[in-house]
């Protein structure tokens, strides 16, 4: 340290390193160069589809609603949901084959759980004398459409439930399984039967579900729905549309100012179904365009579906490439919906919560003076200058870096 204290050059280099190193995490909307520059729950992204080529810190994680507002019925929360959760881009089939099928997500189910996803859409097929997750057609799975055995992903979910005793997960099965008790067997093999929420407790008359606290206390923290009505009687697995209303999936569910129900679902305003699922993804996934889809258009569709569903906010918001957006994305959409459901605020982060009980007074909101920066596509005027794609960092970060450098410089200049 003696040589350092006597060397002005070394001191200057040290100060410069502090000033320009990513020691201060960047907030949403700030210019970044890599994911680690950004604060927790953010990643460094561009969205060329919206004309935003400036790398910015972008939200990928919603607020955990039950950690913010506690004790409400299950249907009084919104859960981020991934469409074809298992269809990870860039992977090979567990059979060893190349996959020639659409891919809808960028990460594993374990990673999705870590990032706050709590709803999973899984397509299950009979394949190779087992149950597999396939993105196929015609009700049949092939080597080139098969991703993984369902057991592998179900074990990932079991590991999460074991490690997080207050968390609740929902699985929506697109069901092509015809083998006798095929679903029951794979859930049993995965060790998930003990967590499954019982069919007998699911309300069919539009009443509230049990509270999340009750579900956690009874360790009934896995809600499973199937697309085959016969499985409710034969295997005790809930037929989705006895309990859920759901809008049209694919391009038909992305028409502005429209929120029609899918064919299997009751009309969106059927209040005898307690849960509302909103889909917002294309017929054919488009990784580059999804950042634009998962931004202002998604927020608009949720409000449209709120009206269509009889003034009910969605309980599940299902998207492709959930991490991609032009700012707040699906995470922001989930927070907005949770705010309306849990406390009547524009975001769950605005809810005023009793520190002792964890309960919120409906309509009591603590709105920050400074809202998060809007996506670049909504900015009124682009910044002037030679390089509008590389906007300056947030002034607070600059001030903190300057202060850090000033204090460090003063300290190093002192001689004892």
From TrEMBL:
<dbReference type="GO" id="GO:0006629">
    <property type="term" value="P:lipid metabolic process"/>
</dbReference>
<feature type="signal peptide">
    <location>
        <begin position="1"/>
        <end position="25"/>
    </location>
</feature>
<dbReference type="InterPro" id="IPR017946">
    <property type="entry name" value="PLC-like_Pdiesterase_TIM-brl"/>
</dbReference>
<dbReference type="GO" id="GO:0008081">
    <property type="term" value="F:phosphoric diester hydrolase activity"/>
</dbReference>
<keyword id="KW-0732">Signal</keyword>
<protein>
    <submittedName>
        <fullName>Putative PLC-like phosphodiesterase, TIM beta/alpha-barrel domain-containing protein</fullName>
    </submittedName>
</protein>
<dbReference type="Pfam" id="PF26178">
    <property type="entry name" value="PI-PLC_cat"/>
</dbReference>
<dbReference type="InterPro" id="IPR051057">
    <property type="entry name" value="PI-PLC_domain"/>
</dbReference>
């Amino acid at each position: 340290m003696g040589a350092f204290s006597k060397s002005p050059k070394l001191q200057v280099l040290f100060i410069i390193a502090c000033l320009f190193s990513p020691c201060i995490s960047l907030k949403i909307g700030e210019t970044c160069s890599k994911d680690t520059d950004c604060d927790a729950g953010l990643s460094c992204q561009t969205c060329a589809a919206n004309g935003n080529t400036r790398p910015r810190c972008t939200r990928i994680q919603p607020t955990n609603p039950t950690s913010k507002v506690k004790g409400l019925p299950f249907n009084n929360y919104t859960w981020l949901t991934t469409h074809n959760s298992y269809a990870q881009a860039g992977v090979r089939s567990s059979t060893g084959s190349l996959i020639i099928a659409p891919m809808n997500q960028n990460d594993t189910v374990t990673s999705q759980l870590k990032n706050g996803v709590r709803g999973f859409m899984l397509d299950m097929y009979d394949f190779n004398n087992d149950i597999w997750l396939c993105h196929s057609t015609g009700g049949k799975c092939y080597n080139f459409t098969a991703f993984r055995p369902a057991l592998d992903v179900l074990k990932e979910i079991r590991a999460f439930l074991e490690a997080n005793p207050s968390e609740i997960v929902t699985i929506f099965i697109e069901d092509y399984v015809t083998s006798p008790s095929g679903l029951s067997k794979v859930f049993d093999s995965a060790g998930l039967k003990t967590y499954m929420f019982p069919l007998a407790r699911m309300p069919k008359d539009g009443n509230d579900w049990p509270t999340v606290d009750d579900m956690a206390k009874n360790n009934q923290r896995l809600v499973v729905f199937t697309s085959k009505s016969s499985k409710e009687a034969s295997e005790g697995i809930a037929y989705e549309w006895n309990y859920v209303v759901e809008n049209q999936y694919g391009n038909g569910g992305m028409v502005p100012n429209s929120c029609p129900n899918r064919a299997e679902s009751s009309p969106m305003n059927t209040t005898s179904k307690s849960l509302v699922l909103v889909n917002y993804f294309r017929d054919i996934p488009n990784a580059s365009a999804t950042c634009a889809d998962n931004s202002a258009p998604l927020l608009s569709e949720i409000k449209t579906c709120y009206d269509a569903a009889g003034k009910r906010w969605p309980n599940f918001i299902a998207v492709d490439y959930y991490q991609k957006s032009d700012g707040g994305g699906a995470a922001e959409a989930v927070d907005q919906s949770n705010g309306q459901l849990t406390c009547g605020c524009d975001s769950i982060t605005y809810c005023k919560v009793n520190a002792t009980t964890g309960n919120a007074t409906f309509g009591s909101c603590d709105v920050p003076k400074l809202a998060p920066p809007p996506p670049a596509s909504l900015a009124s005027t682009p910044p002037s200058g030679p390089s509008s794609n590389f906007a300056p960092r947030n002034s607070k970060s600059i001030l903190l870096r300057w202060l850090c450098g000033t204090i460090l410089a003063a300290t190093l200049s002192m001689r004892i």
